[in-house]
Amino acid sequence: MSTYQKIYIFAENYFINSLNELKEYFKSEFIKIDIKEKKNFDFGPNPLFIIQESFLNNSNDDFFEKFKNNILLIRNYKDKKKKINFNYLLQVPAKVDNYKKDIDEIKSRLKFQINSFVKTGKYILDKNEKRLKFEKKSISLTEKEVQLIEILAYSKAPVSKEQIQKRVWVYSEQADTHTVETHIYRLRKKINEIFSDQNFIKNKKNGYEI
């Protein structure tokens, strides 16, 4: 079974066929998408797109604007003076190595993004910004609060005060289980004030869970 990353293509058939002939080199699977069906297609989190500019010009909605940082736009050299609002642009004709370089760069950035976000219930933990987000609301977090939420989010079972203490505060002599309780109390209060959610961190017999 292929483990290549999927890249979604809005382009002419000849262009897609050419890329798929080189998928071993790109370590990617190229999938053609009908531009009329794009809003009904499940692309999953952080999709990567390659788009011929003519397909972009034929679209009058905000779909491509939403994913503009995930797009490698393919442009004919003769159109180079036209302004665009995308981070990745490749003028054609171009060498295969140039395609691979741009694709790998986008892949690396998307991988970094994925590692920076933790989904927990209806919330998103943004580790870079140190914020917990839901829809248009968010709260600022301390480094310890980020670590605490991440531990609970990834645990399949309740986590005890002692486990949290060891993993968040490591071997700090100033930390004890009361320190854990205080931080959880403050975090719960902060979440309830902004999100009106009193059940984000639950007390269980063997510890805490989200």
Please explain how this structure is put together:
The chain is of the alpha/beta class. It has two domains: 3-114, Rossmann fold; 120-207, Orthogonal Bundle (Arc Repressor Mutant, subunit A). The protein is built from eight helices and eleven strands. A five-stranded parallel β-sheet has the order 2-1-3-4-5. A hairpin with a 2-residue loop joins strand 8 and strand 9 (137-140).
Large-scale geometry: elongated
Number of domains: 2
* CATH second-level architecture of the largest domain: 3-Layer(aba) Sandwich
Q: How is the main sheet built?
A: 5 strands, parallel
Q: How many helix segments?
A: 8
Q: End-to-end distance, in Å?
A: 35 Å
What share of residues is helical?
A: 25-40%
Number of strands: 11
What is the CATH H-level superfamily of the largest domain? Response regulator
Low-confidence stretches: none
CATH topology of the largest domain: Rossmann fold
Return the string of H and E elements: EHHEEHHEEHEEEEHHHEE
Structural class: alpha/beta
| Neighbour order of strands in the largest sheet | 2-1-3-4-5
Main attributes of the structure:
210 residues, four-stranded antiparallel sheet, 8 helices, Arc Repressor Mutant, subunit A, Rossmann fold, alpha/beta
